[in-house]
Amino acid sequence: MDKLDAVKSVMFFEGLPQEKFNKLAEISIIKKYDKGQILFEADVPANGFFAPIKGRVKIFRTSPSGKEQILHVFGPGEAFGEVPVFEGGTFPAHGQAIEKCEALFFPRREFENMIKEDPDLAMKMMAMLAQKLRILVNKIDDLSLKEAPSRVASYLLLLRSSQESDTFKLDLPKGQIAFYLGTIQETLSRIFKKFSEQEIIEINGKEITILNMAELEEIANEGR
């Protein structure tokens, strides 16, 4: 995929005219990261934002005791890091490649100049930020109102949707998935075992196959 096609694949830019894609391709930089490599550190000045082309990036914070809390995982076409860029502040969390990754990088100054010259692009930015706010509200809702099995079921359905298959691989180690879902690894393992015994899913290492979609969806919707 060349840089212009990569820019066109960023959901945030969907619907822009061709000349804007050309300009975005001009100002963007393709960066490559190895698995585990840090894209940016928390509290470091935000000098641009990112959109993966290949691979995924986790956004996380660490507690004083060293405990990691994953805030989100971004894949191809999903932009992140734009809020602190336009606040003129620092990144509020760390960004790390969870697999070999290529990402578009949009420098803050050049993108700000485009925003000033293009009200349509500014409106796109506002729409994306509103969408991310809804995602955050939904996650808070899930963590506060749903029981752990419902949260796990919702997560499996999300993976199924993103990988477009009833058979898919877990995108993170189980310990990190547990932190992301607001539980502990032992609880996650018990839920996986129960789902497997009930023939809702089949587990083969990191690979999950959904056997009973209707039942999994019913569990995911409990508590709403």
Query: If helices are DSSP runs of H or I spanning 4 or more residues, what is the number of helices?
Result: 9
Side by side, the strands of the main sheet go 2-6-4-5
Oligomer: single chain
- Uncertain segments of ≥5 residues (pLDDT<50)? none
Order of helices and strands: HHEEEEEHEEHHHEHHEEH
Q: How many β-strand stretches?
A: 10
Q: Which strand-content bin applies to the residues?
A: 15-25%
> And the CATH topology of the largest domain?
Jelly Rolls
Question: Quick one: biggest sheet?
Answer: 4 strands, antiparallel
CATH class of the largest domain: Mainly Beta
Task: Tell me roughly what share of residues is in helical segments.
Answer: 40-55%
Question: What is the arithmetic mean of pLDDT?
Answer: 86
Radius of gyration: 19 Å
> What class would the helix/strand composition place it in?
alpha+beta
CATH architecture assignment name of the largest domain: Sandwich
Distance between the termini: 41 Å
Going by CATH, what is the homologous superfamily of the largest domain? Answer: Jelly Rolls
Indicate how many domains the architecture comprises.
2
